[in-house]
Automatic annotation (TrEMBL):
Family matches, as Gene3D superfamilies: 3.30.420.40, Winged helix-like DNA-binding domain superfamily/Winged helix DNA-binding domain
Family as reported in the entry's similarity comment: Belongs to the ROK (NagC/XylR) family.
A Pfam cross-reference name: ROK
UniProt protein name: ROK family transcriptional regulator
PANTHER family for this protein: BIFUNCTIONAL UDP-N-ACETYLGLUCOSAMINE 2-EPIMERASE_N-ACETYLMANNOSAMINE KINASE, ROK (REPRESSOR, ORF, KINASE) FAMILY
Length: 398
């Protein structure tokens, strides 16, 4: 048997390992003293101070004034803080009808937001051009230069493999620019981390939403089309070609039959009902029948609207049940533009789930609203920055 080669623990390697350890602690904490860092990392005082000096020189850490403590004996403790403005990240959601761009600092706090409608886009190049415009606007609002952006997470409504390639087997997926990542990098210079929108949604929920602390999690994007992001034991699932969580199989599910999401199904059912002139409903008073109008009418007690939502809930329960059977998540979060209104469906969905699966998940609606994908895209970019921090060259603010 041949043993694996052993890499010598050189001083430079140890310094890098220790820098990564300290940066990991500081990036999730507030102000810390040298003593606090010693306790958190187990490193010696000399090592903590030497490595913090390195991180200060690199721009990742700032040293604060020691402050005054009249009760302390000896030299005051040095105080360190992660530099959340050492660089910036972008979270970009490129949907079928709209793109949303978030600019965030390195703690994930949003500094600027911009968007563009994509409803009239005819070509992938036009779509990319409008994304570029929204990025430029967000950077200008926060007075941030391209050179200060360390990474951009980008979500698209199509499967994306681990190498960042868009799967184009479906006609809907072919609407997206398959060379999107390269085009944005050429325009701006920063690395583009392409990912499926539902996968980013589950990252966002796990980070800032209903899924915090839950590692077996599914997010069901439920607007015009159903799509799901899946997390197992805290690990995002992709599949061999990025197709994990895709829901074309719903065409084979009795009582579902297609991938139409809650918004489209609600709207279609309302239009079908209104085709009968004898039906009495307040929906006839609206200028355009939308899912939002149906939910509003149901909230006001309209019996026709309530009947439509019962039907939509029954269909959605079957969709959620398939996730419970296939991947057995602890929680399924309904997300996207319909999330807030979909809360009206939860009692009916939960009541029916136990009849479809012996492992029914809990169901909740997202608190992130229509920002669910862009928030997840920010988290995706931050993951990249944290992983590669010691290899990144920071551009200091002018």
């Amino acid at each position: 048997m041949t043993s694996a080669p052993v890499t010598a623990a050189t001083p430079a390697l140890l310094r890098r390992v220790n820098a990564g350890k300290l940066l990991g602690v500081l990036s999730t904490a507030g102000v810390m003293t040298g003593t606090g860092l010693i306790q958190a990392t187990g490193l010696t005082r000399a090592t903590v101070h030497a490595v913090c000096n390195d991180l200060i020189d690199m721009g990742w850490v700032v040293e604060l004034d020691p402050g005054r403590d009249d009760t302390a004996v000896g030299r005051p403790s040095r105080r360190f803080e992660f530099n959340s403005r050492a660089g910036y990240v972008l979270g970009i959601d490129i949907g079928a009808g709209r793109t949303t761009v978030l600019l965030a600092d390195l703690r994930g706090e949003t500094l600027a937001k911009a968007g563009r409608s994509l409803s009239s886009v005819k070509t992938p190049a036009e779509r990319t051009g409008l994304v570029h415009e929204a990025v430029v606007e967000a950077l200008a609002v926060a007075d941030v230069r391209d050179s200060q952006v360390l990474a951009a997470g980008v979500g698209v409504a199509a499967p994306v493999d681990r190498a960042g390639n868009i799967l184009v087997d479906d006609e809907f997926w072919r609407r997206f620019d398959t060379d999107l990542g390269h085009r944005l990098t050429e325009l701006h210079g920063w690395p583009v981390l392409l990912e499926n929108d539902a996968n980013l949604a589950v990252l966002g929920e796990h980070w800032r939403g209903q899924g915090q602390g839950i590692d077996d999690l599914a997010v069901l994007l439920a607007g015009e089309r159903f799509g799901s992001g899946l997390m197992d034991s805290g690990r995002l699932l992709h599949g061999s070609r990025g197709g994990a969580g895709e829901m074309l199989y719903l065409k084979l599910v009795e009582g579902v039959g297609d991938t139409h999401g809650i918004a489209r199904t609600t709207r279609d059912q309302a239009v079908a009902v209104l085709a009968d002139p004898t039906v009495r409903t307040r929906l006839r008073d609206v200028s355009e029948v939308t899912a939002e109008e149906v939910f509003a009418a149901a909230a006001a007690g309209d019996e026709v609207a309530l009947g439509i939502l019962r039907s939509v809930a029954a269909r959605t329960a079957r969709v959620v049940a398939t996730l419970g059977i296939l991947v057995n998540p602890e929680l399924v979060v309904i997300g996207g533009a319909v999330a807030e209104a979909a809360g009206q469906l939860l009692p009916d969905i939960e009541e029916q789930l136990a009849g479809y699966t012996s492992t029914p998940p809990r169901v909740a609606v997202s608190s992130l609203g229509d920002a669910i994908v862009s928030v997840g895209a920010v988290r995706h970019a931050l993951n990249y920055v944290e992983q590669h921090a010691l290899d990144l060259v920071l551009t200091r603010s002018a």
